[in-house]
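Can anyone check this?
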Amino acid sequence: MSLLQGRIAIVTGAGSGFGEGIARAFAREGAHVVLADIRPEGIRRIADELEEQALPLLCDVSRADEVDRMIEDAVRSFGTPDILVNNAGITHRNQPMLDVDEDTFDRIYAVNVKSIYLTARALVPRLRARGTGGCIINVSSTAGIRPRPGLTWYNGTKGAVNTLTRSMALELGPDRIRVNAILPVLGATGLTEAFMGMPDTPENRERFLATIPLGRLSTAADIAGAAVYLASDAASMVTGVELPVDGGRTA
């Protein structure tokens, strides 16, 4: 039997990268998946492939009205979600901390941190009313526990995500709502060059690979595998965990 058969999941930032990998893995394991993203192209492409298993929804996760509408549309289409993956995230380009402008600072905190507040505010009351628990997975980063220079304000958002994950797990545990975080190391995504602060050439990439004991970047499949586990009954006693998927980077 598939690990997530009959479950309903929301994945934010589902149109590419880690989010796409997670959404596809959930669908393979039998879940109905709400594909939420600020850009329509990716989620429509994925939804066309997954057909009735997927619902594409445009959503800026930093805006309360759009998050509320996303949850309402998900419930109307599939029912109350069992799983929420807060994957949507952005960064500033790797650069000296004082070179990051205020608008960029505000935007990365809104997308990376405020979004978790907004999705919780919209979904947790429904999970409590249903009374059968649920699962929230926050996609964080190794940056939250092992920062790289040049990414100070981004690092701070991921430190906040880690603390929020532990605190949410404590508060929501009595409601049988599990909350965990996945901490990827640098992966080959649309944000790779911004994280690196330089062109993604083989020579420049090697500098980053040298800090990862397993010698490679993380992939969407790596992160999706961790997400499937955390969302499944195999992890029914797992909450408040920060799970590095990092090839030993934070060991």
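Reply from J.R.: I decoded it. The longest strand covers residues 177-184.
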